[in-house]
Design goal:
The chain is of the alpha/beta class and about 210 residues long. The protein has a single domain (about 5-205), classed as 3-Layer(aba) Sandwich (Rossmann fold). Strand 7 (about 165-175) and strand 8 (about 180-190) form a beta hairpin. The protein has helices spanning about 5-20, 25-35, 65-75, 95-100, 110-125, 160-165; strands at about 55, 60-65, 85, 105-110, 130-135, 145-150, 165-175, 180-190, 195-205. Helices cover about 30% and strands about 25% of the residues. It has a 7-stranded mixed sheet. A two-stranded antiparallel sheet has the order 1-2. Bound molecules: S-adenosyl-L-homocysteine. S-adenosyl-L-homocysteine binds near residues 62, 90, 93, 109 and 209. This is Protein-L-isoaspartate O-methyltransferase. It is an enzyme of class 2 (transferase). It comes from Aquimarina muelleri.
């Protein structure tokens, strides 16, 4: 599959939809306007790629809805050159958005099949995350901690302690918390021991599962 002018036109429309839904961060909108989302999905579903919808990918997982990706990324308040840990590499779409923002990206995936496929695919597209890890996101990634931002792209039944402790002071954790429905939650580390918590409404994600597979 290729990226054509027709795809670019559809991306522009998707960006307009996200603006209507309240996304304002220019860098985030520009990243979504650039990334060929249709290439992150199986070829038969090309027509769905630029609708603002989540979609099934390999290993019973989903590529997140563009609005959700934009909303979570906006909450991170990223600065160029900062370090971000993503939990749930999945299709690699969110990883690509972070790469476009000039972030040093670390990402963890627990499904071996997706981990291998996405690693190859991102490098084919020319995206260079700092490190892709096959492991359990509940543990974070201590080797490269602390991070300016941590973004969890699966629904967490509770907030894993290692993720809070792997944030820098002033770092931000964006995590959907809940079982069937999740509340998008932002934690800002105020000091070694203090965190500010803010909540941003309901979202639906595939579950954050323990251990690797
Ligand atoms: N960021 C992805 C979203 C994929 S859906 C994208 O843009 O496409 C969530 C992903 O989290 C799935 O790929 C799932 O396998 C993964 N996941 C679930 N539990 C996990 C865990 N404990 N550690 C790491 N990844 C996990």
């Amino acid at each position: 599959m290729k990226d054509t002018l027709r795809h670019a036109g559809k991306r522009k429309q998707l960006v307009d939809v996200l603006i209507q839904k309240g996304i304002t961060n220019k860098a985030v909108l520009s990243a979504i306007g650039k990334i060929p989302r249709h290439l992150f999905m199986d070829s038969g579903f090309e027509d769905h790629a630029y609708q603002d919808k989540a979609f099934p990918i390999a290993a019973d997982q989903t590529i997140s809805q563009p609005y959700t990706v934009a909303f979570q990324t906006e909450l991170l308040e990223i600065k160029k050159g900062s370090t971000v840990l993503e939990i749930g590499t999945g299709s690699g779409y969110q990883t690509a958005v972070l790469c476009e923002l000039g972030v040093k990206v670390y990402s963890i995936e627990r499904q071996q099949e997706l981990f291998k496929k996405t690693k190859l695919f991102l490098s084919k597209l020319g995206y260079r995350p700092k490190y892709l890890s096959f492991g359990d996101g509940y543990k974070g990634l201590i080797e490269h901690a602390p991070y300016d931002g941590i973004i969890v792209t699966a629904g967490a039944p509770y907030v894993p302690k290692p993720l809070l402790s792997q944030l820098k002071v002033n770092g931000r954790l964006v995590i959907p918390v809940g079982e069937d429905v999740q509340i998008m939650t932002l934690f800002i580390r105020k000091s070694e021991t203090e965190f500010e918590k803010r909540e941003f409404g309901e979202f639906r994600f595939v579950p954050l599962l323990e251990d690797k597979n």
